[in-house]
Design a protein that fits this description.
Blueprint: H1 3-32, H2 39-54, H3 58-68, E1 69-74, E2 78-85, E3 94-101
Antiparallel strand pairs: 1-2, 2-3
């Protein structure tokens, strides 16, 4: 096999590896990409949570917040609150960031 044929074989083999890697990355991206579920299900969920909160005492509300809030980041001019909504079985959850400006 001459030099050109060897070089072409190496390039072809590398192309196969890169194509496989690209497919794997695309598959991973498809699994982790945010889904557009629309606002209506989220609005309905928020309404049901608000109704449920009315029946909770202070300890119950504190427990609920600790389950939903993933983290709070204090910035000089605002608080960033990251809330997690768990997905149903086999479905990914949703993380929402809400900014609160400081007075």
């Amino acid at each position: 096999m001459d030099y050109t044929s060897q070089a072409k074989a190496k390039v072809d083999a590398e192309r196969v590896k890169l194509t496989e890697r690209k497919r794997e990355i695309e598959r991973q991206l498809a699994q982790t990409a945010p889904r557009d579920v629309g606002l209506e299900p989220l609005k309905a969920f928020c309404k049901s949570v608000a109704e449920g909160l009315e029946s909770l005492d202070a300890a119950g509300r504190q427990k609920l917040v600790s389950l939903l809030v993933d983290k709070i980041v204090a910035m000089p001019d605002r608080l960033d609150v990251f809330v997690i909504f768990l997905g149903s079985e086999g479905e990914p959850g949703l993380m929402v960031k809400q900014e609160f400006g400081l007075i």
